[in-house]
Amino acid sequence: MANRPLTPEFILPVIKEEAPFSLSTPTGGLTPGHTLYVDGVVPLNSSSFSVGFDNGNPSDLVVAMSVHVKVISQRVEFTSFIDGSWVNPQSLLGFFPFLPDTAFTMEIEILSNIFKIYINGHQMASYDHLISPTLVKRINIDGSVTLYRVLLQHSADSRTIKAFNPSLPWKHVVPGCMQPDTIVYLEGLASGSRLSIRFQEGQPLNSNVVNVSFQIDSEIEKDHVLISNFVSGEQRVTDRKMNVLRKGEPFKIYISLTDTYYTASINNQQLINYKHRLSIENADTVFVDGDVKIYKIIMKIPATQAIVQPLMNPNLPVDFNILGELKPGRVILINGYIEPKAVRCYFNIQTDESLYICDVAYQLMVKFGAGVMEQRSRCNGIWTQPTTINILPFIKGEQFQMEFHIDNESYGTNILGTQIPKFLYHVTPYQLANWIHVHGDLKIIQIRLR
Has residue 264 got a pLDDT over 60? Predict the structure, then answer.
């Protein structure tokens, strides 16, 4: 595959692409804040594969870092190629997640002095810069590996932040400030006695010395959750709500921002709509503390410089990020054209741009040969039993318009004026699913949000 230029939010259409695979970095090379994401599967017959950061000049090659995965010997090695020699070899010992026929996610974060390498959400290694990452012009993936996503992204443009099994206290600073439609989602276990979540100005660990626009403070064994804000360390408007967190039990917490409120729920039960007392423009940090176990934190932040919507005449497969929260009343509209010899096509509403590892909140599969459609979802890698719909509004060789309607409990679908049965939410909270993925024997003219 030929190299192609990459902008910070450009997602390469990698759907089951075999290595070798390479891409060009942005003008100016890599800088602190860039992260490379690689999702793939190790084939059964794989002996090795590598991910390298080089200067793009084969006649005078310089490799800032190469991650070499040796499947047969179950070793991961890191090294650089400078002045015609491989130097500074290092090995990852005692852990090998790249087993044959197994999916993996690799994240390589570029910091000011090191590469930081994560495998399946866990930090596995760091590697010192021997040359400036600004000299990296190409990322090259070689060997025997099947790729499902390759994404280079900069933190200043990030829309989704993920932390798996983070240590507390945990914080994330949002470039600029909080915006309406920001989402924060936590999963964990109430193994301790206290959990605190707050949206604040600046990064002090102590809420007594900072402005806090919204705070949830729960002592697990008490009956009430305290919701409040702080101005210059002084606690202001407070509210008490029934505490549904139970010692030793799992929990899910969902918080979203609107122009007027912080909206929070725990275990799918509405907790509060908390009116803004401080401007959300004064909040730039999310802070989580306590002695509970956190399994994952997901933040979805509307991009300030995002792909312009609507999306017009894209190539297939289509991966379209819906900017802002998918809340009741919103409608996704898709216009397209069915190929004259179409066999099948499908439409996904899913939680991430990576088809292979995301949760699929709703899939509508169209089977032209059988004259039916099927609805199903996938959560944690497991598909639900499909529901068959014995009508087919799509017509081969003709254009179509379809609408996905969002309500409190389900997705509604209308195709060329035909309403098909609603599909109840299986992935919760449903607001996490804000990617549209479309593929098959069709052409997309436009996708937009109303």
Answer: yes
